[in-house]
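Quick one: co-fold with ANZ.
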Amino acid sequence: MTSKYDHTRVEKKWQEKWEKSKLFNPNLKEAENPFYNLWMFPYPSAEGLHAGHAFASTGSDVFGRFMRMQGRDVFQPIGYDSFGIHSENYAIKIGENPHEVVKRTTKHYEEQMRSFGHGYDWQHTVTTSSSDYYKWTQWLFLKMWEADLAYKKNATVNFCPSCKTVLADEQVMTPAQAGKEPKNASGEVVENVGELKVCERCGTIVEKKDLDQWFFKITKYADRLLSGLKKIDWSERVVTAQRNWIGKSEGMLIKFEIDGGGEIEVFTTRPDTLNAVTFIVTSDEALYNEENPEKIGEFTGKYALDPLSGKKLPIWKTNYIAPGYGTGNVMGVPAHDERDMEFAKKYHLDIVEKEPDEKLWKLIEEKGWGKRHTNYHLRDWLVSRQRYWGAPIPMIDCPKDGWVAVPEKDLPVLLPDIKDYQPEGTGKGPLANHKEFYETTCPKCGGKATRETDVMDTFVDSAWYFLRYPSVGDDNQAFDPAITKKWLPVNLYFGGAEHSVLHLMYARFVTMVLHDLKLINFDEPFPKFFAHGLMIKDGAKMSKSRGNVVNPDEYVAKFGADAMRMYLMFMGPMDGYPDFRDTGIEGMERFINRLWNIFNNKPELKDKSVVYSKLHQTIKKVTDDISNFKYNTAIASIMELVNVIQEEGMDEAVLKNLCLILTPFIPHFAEEVWVEVLGGKFSVHRESWPKYDAKLIKVDQVTIVIQVNGRVRGQILVGSGVANQEKQIMALAEKDGKVSKWLEGGKIRKVIFVPGKLLNFVV
Ligand code: ANZ
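Sure, here it is.
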């Protein structure tokens, strides 16, 4: 008997050895076969990483280790998205400066991630709130400005009364999308918010305000962002989400004369239904009234003239259409549009049933009633925030020269360490109270000028971090051209689908801009993106209020990182909603102990053809499954192989191969077995992934289930030639140790045989 597997000792030992031997620090300049394996970096929160992070990051790490064994030089960096409202709100809550909070939370994150045994290159981490990083975020802003893609403008924008800052359109959503209970400005939960949208971060109903804000012209890239989707390999749901968010609609702008003077213009994607128009609606949000939510329309007393029939079309005000979309006016076609139909019925307006007529497109253009127009849902990206914890926007307002960029040599514009960092909600950020920060001189004329006091949205930080990783440490540039050319674009990006239209859209936009500025030679940052699923616990989403947040640290300490990793990967498909159960991880610990015994006791090989065929089938299955992120079925097939080995025995070659295919999932265990038990060379992670032999797989094997009195007592593997031979199967089954003990002392009365499947002894 071998002693129990000691995960604590083994995991610590190899983690130290890996670090010392620089196993995960590829030579970025000289590597010949680069593979950039990236997981979306987390924002460091006070609670630390939860098991959902462990699930997602392990999924990425398994692939990285698999690619290393395919001969690739794997670069797998990690960092912290540490600027932003999340860290800042927590700092405010506990009354500690965000600088201090972030120092502590990132340290805790690092300890946790190291304990999982992931193969990160710890020499290339980024912390977005460090000045050696945000200096280059500010540089990126200057590039946008130089390219005429950044501007400050007064606009009606979304404002979160709780976070006391403006938000980008992408950060405003339904409560369900935000995963939050909707709250009003006083923080009370609101039952029914109707069409109102909430803040992504805190769930508070957003308000509209007219404010001067900084924008990036992402709309200029709308068509590129759409066409680029065709050349990247992303999950369909993420592609669809981006396509819908960009929301390209081809239609027409049509002008209707108003009876008594003036005109009203509508945007329509269905000019072919002009023959069935019966009214016009113009948006009026002020109609929304909490006391009378049923009221959605009001007649204006005016009429527009139908260019086709000359009939009078009543003009109604309504809140069922969006003010900021198209022209904010719609031609009402109840016969073909459901919402128009509802409105017409409610207010007793005419309904005309007429077949749409494609010829109308041409007619409208020829008559000059309207012109073709493409409308987008995408709006420019609002990047300024009236908060403290972000990269200061490197712009200076000069009374003489207007907005002037901070010269690159003067970067970074340091975020000063101030005590009154709480947002006030005045439309200005906390830096606006600090003369010593904003009083400066104009870089152009040298006269007195003031700095911008807003900071950048955190999504600007994360829109380019993947470019920085390989160039970390380079103080002269954001990214080194030669290293960037070698390592980018990212080979595999792993992350959550909730970033579909936020981070993933912004990162694509920034990459396209840098490409057009000839600073990089690719225009899609993530040619392959895998959207992982969401882990749940005992059937429900993990949340603090339910008290079902799984803290991975406890499990790693008790069962080991390997048991945790392999259990997380075994729970279910990587893109699904696997449910974490304590009993499951206990089972995985037992499986690892079973493996330990097999490697140490080496059951003697009985039937070579059966074991080899199963081994090569398994190598093929695991190779295919890992390539397709089907880790759970890969592990299941390894378990089947282990069952066969336990029955039929094995030799040295079988053991080595078994160890190799376990390596991505249980890296510490595999290293221990490889080096200490099998006498292999350090490190198993530098070994080649095993190849399967198609000829060996071909030896067809069939599993026959053996029952005694209808209960399953064992199974036997036979060549397909014998699978239909009742006599032979019976003889084999009677000799099988597991089955024979159930036959002892009894008399076989009857045998039921289903060829190729099952044999049942009735005793
Ligand atoms: C007449 C019509 C007939 C329409 C019909 C649709 C169906 P997308 O595809 O989203 O661009 N629309 C225009 N401006 C709007 C606004 N500000 N708020 C809400 N709806 C608006 O949709 C364009 C269609 O949505 C337009 O085509 C218009 O209704 C409506 F059988 O015009 B349609």
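If it helps, The mean pLDDT is 93.
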